[in-house]
Amino acid sequence: MQDNITKLFKAIADPTRREIFHALVIATTALSITQISNQFDMTRQGVTKHIKTLEDAGLVNINTQGRERFCNANPKELKEINKWLKFYEQFWDDKLGSLSNYLDSKA
C-alpha cells in the first residue's frame, strides 16, 4: 500500500490531473464529471481515471446525486507535500549556512 505522500505526488505528477484539480479549485463549487470532461480533449472514461487517482490521494471528493457524480477539490491535502518540502528547505538552508560560515572563517 502506498503512503499518503506517494499518492499525492503520483496524483499531481500528471499535467492533466493538475489541470483537473486546478479547475475544481477555481470553480469553488462541485462540478459534474461531464462538466469536467467537456473541458478536456479526451474521453469521459479517461477523465474519470484521472479523477479516481485524485480521489485516491484525497485531493478530490466525489458525491453522487441521482445518475450524476459531482467532484469537489480538497486542497488541504497538499499540506502534506508542503511539510515534506519544508524539511528539505530547512536542510538546505542549514547546509548553505554552514558553507557560508566555513567560507567566512577562511577569508
How does this structure look, described?
There is one protein chain. The chain has 107 residues and is of the alpha+beta class. It has a domain at 4-76: Winged helix-like DNA-binding domain superfamily/Winged helix DNA-binding domain (Arc Repressor Mutant, subunit A, Orthogonal Bundle). Helix content is 64%, strand content 13%. The protein has helices at residues 4-13, 15-27, 33-37, 44-56, 79-106, and strands spanning 31-32, 60-65, 68-73. The chain has a 3-stranded antiparallel β-sheet with strand order 1-3-2. Strand 2 and strand 3 (68-73) form a beta hairpin. Helix 1 (4-13) runs antiparallel to helix 4 and helix 2 packs across helix 4.
Lay out the secondary structure.
Elements: H1 4-13, H2 15-27, E1 31-32, H3 33-37, H4 44-56, E2 60-65, E3 68-73, H5 79-106
Antiparallel strand pairs: 1-3, 2-3
Helix pairs in contact: 1-4, 2-4
Total number of beta strands: 3
CATH architecture heading of the domain at 4-76: Orthogonal Bundle
Note the total helix count. 5
| CATH H level, superfamily name of the domain at 4-76 | Winged helix-like DNA-binding domain superfamily/Winged helix DNA-binding domain
In the CATH scheme, the class of the domain at 4-76 would be Mainly Alpha
H/E order of the elements? HHEHHEEH
Using only C-alpha atoms, the radius of gyration works out to: 20 Å
Largest sheet: 3 strands, antiparallel
CATH topology of the domain at 4-76: Arc Repressor Mutant, subunit A
Low-pLDDT sequence parts: none
- Secondary-structure class: alpha+beta
- Give the termini distance in whole angstroms: 52 Å
What percentage of the residues does DSSP assign to strands (E)? Answer: 5-15%
Percent of residues in helices: 55-70%
With strands numbered from the N-terminus, the spatial order across the biggest sheet is 1-3-2
Calculate the mean pLDDT score and round it: 93
Outline: elongated
